[in-house]
Every structure is written in structure tokens, then in C-alpha cells.
């Protein structure tokens, strides 16, 4: 993980070099910037999800965390409030995921890393006929997420419990295709590239992949740099903390760094 000085330098570089809609010539990306990136909506359901988040952030319950991802070292028991504060996407980014799902309306969506279910609820709420498969390896987190999905009566989320290394290959084998994947767990280069290549097997010209924490570490940035250069990837959008890639065959390969 980078230290705060490296983060600050990287962010300043991003801030002064990133473009806006005025620097985008591709109609597809221009539309995406105007209709998805640059519009913040205030939907009533956001309040429901944020209520769930704030309840968990005040909770005194303890949960066990297994050492699964790149940052984890050993098993620990921690307050639920800490997990809610640290692992879930902020409302700003969760809303962006919701808008991406609303805009592209994937039928088959996958999330790698459920944690307590905050980002899953945002994404699934945008799907009119689509279905979200979300994977989580930490049993206590999965239990809380399942409780949240049930409480808010989600019918279009399937939570798959188990290590990504076992569950993701089985899920990808089972699915006819993937229309959308949010990669948000196990932030090592090796795992990120492995999960990307697995999902790529079922990607098509309309598929969207979103990667979280692309600047979380040098390794993650290297993984992102490799991913955007894959021959199958045509358009990539770097939003500093998140990266989005598209496989549109009709589009020339182009990489955008955009202000968000
Ligand atoms: C950053 S959190 C996900 C946050 C969630 N997407 C949100 O914004 O609400 C990443 C999750 O991935 C899980 N995870 C990490 N490595 C894993 C692995 N190898 N197998 C299964 N789960 C894993 C962790 O337990 C953690 O809950």
C-alpha cells in the first residue's frame, strides 16, 4: 500500500493531467462522461442504503475477519463499525457504480468482493431485469451482507460465499456470458490479473469491467497498466481510484484519464 505522501503526489499529477468532457472526442466516451460521470442524482434509495451503512457504523457487534485479501495478514476480530467504515465504497463511488449499471443495464453482473453488501445494493438497485452475483470469502461479512439484502428485499442478488480462487472459476464456467464485473477484492497484481483473465473468457463487445483501487499500490497500478493494454480492451477510463474498461470492437483503442 502506498504512503500518504506518494498518494498526494500521485493525486496531484492525476488532477493536473486528467481531462474533462471537452477533451474527449469519442462520442461513446463523451456520452458516458455527460450521462454517467458528471451527473449526481439524489435517489430516495440512496438514503436507504446510507441508513444501512450508518447503522453498521454505529454497531458495537464484533465480527471475525479472515486473512483473505492482499492487505490482510492474520485473522482478527474487529468491530463491525470498523469494517463498515473501511471496506465499503463511499457513497460517491457507490452512486457512480449505480449510475454505470443504470446506464448499461447489464443482465449478468458480477461483483468480486461483497464485504457487507453496500456496493452490491447500489449496483443491484439499478438493474431492471439484470441479476448480480456477488462473491465474498469472509463468512461473518457474508452473513451481514445477506441480512442487509434480505432486509431491503433484494430479489436480484445472489451472494456466493467462498474464496474467489474457488468460486470465481466455477461461476464463470456456469454463466453464459458476463455483461459487467466490478473487481473489488484481493488487491494483488497476480490475483487481479487472474480474475480479469477468467472474466475475460465470457466478455463480449458490450461488457464493462470496473476495477477499484487501481492506485492502492504500485502492484495494483501495474495490474491496471497491463489490463488496459490487453488486445481485447479497446477503451479504458482512468478515474484515479477506479478504472473502467470496455471491449467495444467498433472503437479504436484509446486510453482516457478523466477528472472525477
Ligand atoms: C473492499 S471489500 C469489498 C467492499 C464492497 N465491494 C463494498 O464496496 O461494499 C473486499 C472484500 O473482498 C473479500 N476478499 C478478499 N480476498 C478474497 C478472496 N481471496 N476470496 C474471497 N473473498 C475475498 C474480503 O473479505 C472483503 O470483504
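^ Assign residues to that structure.
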Amino acid at each position: 500500500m502506498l504512503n500518504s505522501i506518494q498518494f498526494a503526489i500521485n493525486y496531484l499529477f492525476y488532477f493536473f493531467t486528467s481531462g474533462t468532457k471537452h477533451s474527449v472526442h469519442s462520442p461513446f466516451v463523451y456520452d458516458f462522461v455527460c450521462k454517467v460521470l458528471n451527473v449526481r442524482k439524489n435517489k430516495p434509495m440512496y438514503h436507504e442504503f446510507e441508513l444501512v451503512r450508518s447503522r453498521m457504523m454505529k454497531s458495537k457487534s464484533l465480527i471475525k475477519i479472515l486473512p483473505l485479501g492482499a492487505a490482510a495478514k492474520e485473522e482478527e476480530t474487529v468491530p463491525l463499525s470498523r469494517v463498515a467504515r473501511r471496506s465499503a465504497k463511499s457513497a460517491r463511488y457507490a452512486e457512480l457504480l449505480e449510475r454505470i449499471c443504470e446506464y448499461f443495464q447489464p443482465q449478468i453482473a458480477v461483483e468480486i468482493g461483497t464485504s457487507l453488501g453496500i456496493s452490491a445494493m447500489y449496483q443491484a438497485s439499478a438493474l431492471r431485469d439484470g441479476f448480480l452475483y456477488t462473491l465474498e470469502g469472509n463468512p461473518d461479512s457474508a452473513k451481514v451482507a445477506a441480512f442487509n439484502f434480505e432486509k431491503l428485499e433484494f430479489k436480484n442478488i445472489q451472494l456466493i460465499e467462498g474464496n474467489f480462487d474457488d468460486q470465481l472459476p466455477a461461476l464463470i464456467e456456469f454463466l453464459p456470458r458476463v455483461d459487467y464485473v466490478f473487481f473489488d477484492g484481493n488487491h494483488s497484481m497476480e490475483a487481479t490479473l487472474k480474475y480479469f483473465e477468467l472474466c475475460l473468457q465470457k466478455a463480449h463487445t458490450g461488457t464493462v469491467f470496473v476495477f477499484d483501487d487501481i492506485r492502492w499500490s504500485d502492484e495494483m497500478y501495474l495490474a491496471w497498466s497491463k489490463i488496459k493494454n490487453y488486445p481485447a480492451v479497446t477503451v479504458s477510463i482512468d478515474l484515479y481510484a477506479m478504472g473502467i474498461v470496455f471491449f467495444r470492437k467498433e472503437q479504436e483503442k484509446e486510453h482516457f484519464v478523466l477528472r472525477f
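The beta strands are 62-65, 76-79, 108-112, 131-136, 157-161, 180-183, 208-212, 235-238, 242-246, 254-257.
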